[in-house]
Write a structure and sequence with these properties.
Layout: H1 2-19, H2 35-43, H3 56-60, H4 70-77, E1 82-83, E2 89-96, E3 110-118, E4 121-129
Antiparallel strand pairs: 1-2, 2-3, 3-4
């Protein structure tokens, strides 16, 4: 009977670890990002539609995404609008004025989020305005 109890405890422990994905990679659900945010973010290339503007504050205050990998960031948010120096940061325009071809217009007000990476993991997010 003792052996069955030990086996049951071990099975429950393993199941719990796997369900929480204790192997180091968090699931998308654990990042506190809504499906609406991720869907609209990806559709709003260069921030031309203005949808990304609504999500800036929630991203800046979301500590759950800190530490995720570059690949997971790109999977969640889509290809960045541009890369920073040495590709150590991913830049996403948020509130910009764009041409009909969704290119950011020069000499207009714009803002963007910079996802700063260290060792291919998100260290911090900064908002920039020009």
């Amino acid at each position: 009977m003792k052996n069955y109890f030990k086996i049951l405890v071990i099975v429950l422990f393993v199941f719990t670890c796997l369900s929480q994905n204790a192997l180091g990679q968090k699931s998308k659900d654990n990042y506190g990002l809504s499906t609406e945010l991720l869907t609209k973010w990806k559709k709003d290339k260069n921030g031309c539609l203005g949808d990304r503007c609504y999500f800036v504050d929630s991203l800046l205050s979301n500590g759950l995404i800190i530490g995720i990998t570059r690949n997971m960031l790109i999977e969640l948010f889509g290809k960045p609008d541009k890369y920073g120096a040495n590709r150590n940061s991913l830049v996403y325009f948020t509130c910009t004025k764009c041409s009909e071809k969704k290119n950011v217009l020069k000499n207009t007000d714009s803002s963007w989020l910079v996802f700063l990476l260290v060792d291919n993991r998100l260290k911090e997010i900064h908002a920039q305005i020009q």
